[in-house]
Amino acid sequence: MDSLPDTPVISVIIPSHNRQTLLAQVLDALARQADVTVRFEVVVVLDGCRDGSPAMLAGRSDPFPLRIVELPGVGPAMARNAGVTEAAGELLLFLDDDVIPTEGFVAAHAAAHQSRPGAAVLGAYPPEPVASGDRFRLDSRRWWTAHFDGLAARGHRFTYCDLLTGNLSLSRALWEEVGGLDSQFAKAREDWELGVRLMEHGVPFIYAPQALGWHQEHLTTTPGSALRRAKEEGRSDALMALKHPQLAHLLAASRQLRRPNWTSRLRKLLLPRLGLFDGAVMAAGPKMLRLLERAGLVGPRRWLDRQLRLYCYQRGSIEALGRDFARFGGEGTGGVAVQPLDLDLAQGIERAEALLAERRPATVRIRHGDREIAVLPYAPAAEPWNAHHLRSQLVQPHVIRKLAPVLAASAFGGGVAEWDKLAALGMVGVTDFTAQLHESQRQWMRLVGR
């Protein structure tokens, strides 16, 4: 990271739209960064702001250089691209305007790049822990918490959809190599689409939990904004399936529109003609959800929420497709035939891990002698399988149930076929209480019967 003495090492790029108060809090937090040895600047892109954000920024005096870019409201993808054009740092750190960074945030990103040059560094931004009993709020927080728990899990295999631009850093050279964000993904999935291209370039993803920011989603996300977001996600997923057909079978838009049942055909017939109702659905939907929640009708509320999101999502998909709708609905799954790497656990797990580290295969067949244990599948825009993935896959319930008879035969003797007949081994990894209770009752009856 050699640079001129006055040149910032990192450019923190913050797109913002009418969030003056939150934006000021983000900048205040950046001004309190503990490690002042990391030179950084901040580039704020005001995208169609009609609040007091320009005046607030003009009146600030911060310990870092502050650059301001004003745009007429082009969406976060183009706003981030414009911020990069204005930035001077050789590392680009993207931060949302509702994510309050903790002390050491910038330094943690810098340290991650020093330890792994050329990587895309994914920072953490879980929801601010604010108490709420609102079901929408709880569901939203559950999604965000599960996302970051997944990134932190041992043996996690990174894919394109792990990449989110709310807290992300990568080098300028890498950004220019892959071409930045695609502006056609104007308001959603621009980060996932960038993740596809980074994965195809073989760029490693690393998770940096120390680069922590608190997401103020309780202030910026509402049931109404969630429906608007669902429509934008549908639009972007349809475009993603057209641009990256190898991903089509993974995206909800293409799966839903290809279903051969009568409900799917009816939706495909009616949805293109229902555009005039979008505004009414997005306005009335949240009110209906609140009424059902106040009445304690949890099941109907959950059902209505799914239907509203599905409507908005599919309306976005169909609007984006236009003339490509017929072709989109008739495409195949984009499946790819990949020769798996054979791993024999009978030769030892260390040997298997060494082979994975050496070969980095796209798919793996795991066996123990002649017995097939599991297949680690091919996935487009995902990192190749590596040594650190293996053990976490072996402890998955569906895998351990296949492996358990082999291990039991090795440890206690007898044939694998005999251990296969032991029903209790089929319960390994089962967490359902009722299933466990029934199995314990069956074992007790067999014991008493003897």
UniProtKB/TrEMBL annotation:
Which InterPro entries does UniProt cross-reference here?
Glyco_trans_2-like, Glycosyltransf_2, Nucleotide-diphossugar_trans
Record's Pfam families? Answer: Glycos_transf_2 (PF00535)
Its EC number is 2.4.-.-
Kindly list the residue ranges recorded as spanning the membrane.
none
Q: What class of enzyme is it?
A: transferase
Q: Which GO terms describe its molecular function?
A: glycosyltransferase activity
Q: Where is the Glycosyltransferase 2-like domain?
A: 11-141
Q: Which UniProt keywords apply?
A: Glycosyltransferase, Transferase
Q: What is this protein called?
A: Glycosyltransferase
Q: Which organism is it from?
A: Novosphingobium album
